[in-house]
Amino acid sequence: MMERNLDPMPRTGDLDLDQVFRETHAVVDAVPAQPDDIGSVIRAVFGAADPSDHALAGGSGARSRSDRDLVDEQTLQDAGADVDELVRRSSPTGLHIRRSPALDAIGLTPTAAAARRVSGRIESLREARRLVGLRDAETLVARRDQEYRSRVLDAAEELMVEEGYGAVKMLRLADKAGLMPLLVIRFFRTSNDLYLALLQRKGEQWLQASAVAIASARPLTALWDFNRERAKLTAEFAALADHRRELRDEVTSWAQRLRDMHSEAMPVLLIRYNVNAASAAGYVTLLENALVVSPTDVESQFMAKIASTLAQLETKAAVGTAAHISLSATSITVAGHHVAESPDR
Amino acid sequence: MRRSPEEASFEDLVRSEWDQLARTGKRYALYRSLPPDAGADIVATALERVWKKEWSTLCLMDSSRQLATIYRYMQYVAQEHERHTKRVSPVAPEELPQPVHHDRDPTERLAAEDLLTDVAAAMGELSDRERTVLELAAIAGLTNAEIAEQTGMSRTHVSTVLARARNRLKDKLRDRAQHRCDGARLPRQTDTGQADREGGA
């Protein structure tokens, strides 16, 4: 008979390692300790360094001998790429990655690499791991670049709407987008590049939004609202086209595409309001009154009238009564009474 | 002061997982017979390194991957700590602060503390690779797949190493227990090879 002793081990049968760990975890977790203050830890971390923006930057890793033990043969073989191949694969967007940051990223100093004549002979776990990680890095870098690019475009759009295109300056953009100015330049070499990219993006968005508006239950009101919304940005692009010859063609082509889309859809829309298809062009022009950016009082009144008349028209059509409303490019007539006249512009 | 999205996402993660991080740091420390306050050092150093070296790409990945990376770094930092401090002055087990259990029977309590010392000592006898994998599994709670991803080993290799580590740990613990109960003999488990009957951690 075994005497009772301090031994916590089970005396017969198998040793339950999970149970052992449960007990030791309980012991450990109960030990009092002073954890750091989160705030000071975070401040210390950020104070240390930035994750700088050439892709794959890293500090030079200290490679320890024990790392080598952790690499199995398969991983070594998988990771046996030439360093130059690595550099090529890791800059898909044309961002130039110089050899030394690339080597740095895999934990080699250039002299060490030279000394070991690296070319397929990779030795430490960190290198292997980073190489394996770098194969995925292509997508990560591309994805990140896309994200940064759209951040810059978002910032540019905001600035153009709030303050006009004169406010779109590189440093301002970088600040608003939360990126380094260097990166802004990398994506958009000149300001025209930026404007063209933004125009492209907005153009596509606006075509889509128009399609949605046209397909909606109240398309005329939807198109009116859509025009109101894009008024400021459209005006800025128009001003840009005025001042910069290089942008002129692009801006006018997008404007034309948009107008064409509206004009094509309009006759079909007007059928449901019992309006003569011949007035389609007039309606399109009427809707463009929404694009006025700083309307005078008279203009505001006219615009309000248009909006409310359109609403009437659509409501009555929705319930099936004739509206006896007539709108033309320049005047609004409701039930035979002349309601409003377009102010002289 | 302008805060980049990277800083924001990093800080969010650290704040939301802080308790878990601190607890794991303390575990890493105590399983290496380091003082428990070393745990805080371990967390801070690991976070700094992850921020500097990994975050620019890590911030795009999901939070489990981010956490697994932090735990991997913490494991390595703990190892560095131990090697550095033990070289200078190895800490005798008696000097470690004793955990306080008011609710447990003193006999049990003593037994549990001995158990921790045994486990820590036994783990110290494992090879680097076995210990890393075991710690990532048992202390940080990573799955085999996560360990494979973090260490660059294949999944089967991780299972193999983990099973081997657990078996060796069991043997060592049994030996120590045997030592302590003079005369009592425990049945010795025959090595079942690669298949670990209890499954992976």
Number of helices of chain A: 16
Give the terminus-to-terminus CA distance of chain A.
Answer: 110 Å
Structural class of chain A: mainly alpha
**Portion in strands of chain B:** under 5%
Tell me the Rg of chain B in angstroms. 19 Å
In short:
Chain A is mainly alpha-helical and 345 residues long. Chain A has 16 helices and three strands.
Descriptive report:
The complex is a heterodimer of chains A (345) and B (201). With 345 residues, chain A is mainly α. Helices cover 63% and strands 3% of the residues of chain A. Chain A has 16 helices and three strands. Chain A has a three-stranded antiparallel sheet. In chain A, β2 and β3 (337-341) form a beta hairpin. In chain A, α13 (231-243) runs antiparallel to α14. The longest helix of chain A has 39 residues, at 125-163. Residues 1-6, 48-84, 90-102 and 108-126 of chain A have low confidence and may be disordered. The longest helix of chain B has 26 residues, at 63-88. Chain B is mainly α and 201 residues long. In chain B, 67% of the residues lie in helices and 0% in strands. Chain B has helices spanning 5-16, 18-30, 38-53, 55-58, 63-88, 106-124, 128-138, 144-151, 155-180. Chain B is globular, with a radius of gyration of 19 Å. Chain B starts with a helix and ends in a 21-residue tail after the last helix. At the A-B interface, α1, α2 and α8 of A face α1, α2, α3, α4 and α6 of B.
Index terms:
heterodimer; A: 345 residues; mainly alpha; 3-stranded antiparallel beta sheet; 63% helix; elongated; disordered N terminus; B: 201 residues; 9 helices; 67% helix; globular; disordered C terminus
Give me the secondary-structure topology.
The complex is a heterodimer of chains A (345) and B (201).
Chain A: H1 17-30, H2 38-48, H3 65-69, H4 73-78, H5 83-89, H6 99-105, H7 110-116, H8 125-163, H9 170-177, H10 181-187, H11 191-215, H12 219-229, H13 231-243, H14 245-271, H15 280-287, H16 297-319, E1 325-327, E2 331-334, E3 337-341
Helix pairs in contact in A: 8-9, 9-10, 11-12, 11-14, 12-16, 13-14, 14-15
Chain B: H1 5-16, H2 18-30, H3 38-53, H4 55-58, H5 63-88, H6 106-124, H7 128-138, H8 144-151, H9 155-180
